[in-house]
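We were asked to recover a plausible sequence for a given structure. The inputs and outputs are reproduced exactly as logged, with field labels preserved.

PROBLEM: sequence recovery
POSITIONS: 254
GIVEN STRUCTURE:
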């Protein structure tokens, strides 16, 4: 049993400062699989080491995608290690051999969680979802279903289901992204509107968006050149500006 702080410190450096220098990196299988099962930030940090063991040392992990799917919760768009997590998730979902129901479940869960995500996370996750559609055309049924569910009450998708194959994602539609087309941030609304058109074959490069922060987003908006908009208005008279208001007889703005 390791303290949480020590767990995190070890897992952060494990993939590049420990595993490459071990004669038998497979000795870390038990440690990493246990860490991956703990949940929260520790599971996110264990992904890097697991990826190396799966990719380079032929580790077979039958429930890997199920656990990855269950790591997706509302906090995933706010955590410190968000960029690292989505970089690895992008790699894990890059194979064209993954079944459509699995990818659809990830798309649907990410979209549902996006309804409460901050703008800087949305500007990353919408291109991320578009890339998944490009890799897995069978999932486009989620977009091209005009008579599908229009809100959460009609949606057959089961958000609480831990098993992706039982979530009924392929029977649903992507009404969440349609809702984001009315987002208060114009860049988010513009990004979400891309799904109304045919997607290009070239994938979007999301590497520059993974670490986008609220500060950078705000700074970009502040530096935009303001456009003077002519306004026509009636001069305010009285306390509340209403015509024939009784307050106008007793209060003035002088």
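RECOVERED SEQUENCE:
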């Amino acid at each position: 049993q390791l303290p949480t702080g020590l767990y995190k410190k070890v897992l952060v450096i494990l993939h590049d400062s420990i595993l490459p220098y071990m004669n038998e990196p497979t000795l870390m299988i038990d440690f990493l699989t246990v860490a991956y099962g703990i949940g929260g930030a520790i599971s996110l940090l264990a992904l890097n080491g697991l990826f190396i063991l799966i990719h380079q040392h032929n580790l077979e992990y039958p429930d890997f995608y199920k656990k990855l799917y269950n790591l997706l919760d509302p906090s995933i768009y706010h955590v410190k290690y968000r960029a690292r997590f989505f970089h690895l998730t992008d790699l894990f979902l890059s194979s064209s051999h993954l079944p459509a129901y699995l990818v659809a479940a990830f798309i649907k869960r990410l979209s549902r969680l996006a309804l409460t995500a901050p703008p800087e996370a949305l500007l990353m996750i919408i291109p991320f979802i578009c890339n998944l559609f490009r890799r897995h055309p069978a999932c486009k049924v989620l977009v091209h279903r005009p008579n599908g569910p229009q809100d959460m009450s009609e949606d057959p998708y089961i958000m609480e289901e831990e098993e992706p194959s039982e979530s009924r994602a392929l029977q649903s539609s992507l009404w969440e992204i349609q809702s984001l087309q009315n987002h208060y941030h114009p860049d988010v609304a513009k990004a979400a509107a891309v799904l109304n058109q045919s997607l290009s074959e070239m994938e979007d490069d999301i590497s520059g968006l993974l670490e986008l922060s609220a500060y950078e987003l705000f700074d970009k908006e502040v530096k935009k050149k303001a456009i003077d908009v002519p306004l026509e208005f009636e001069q305010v008279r009285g306390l509340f500006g209403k015509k024939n208001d009784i307050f106008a007889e007793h209060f003035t703005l002088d």
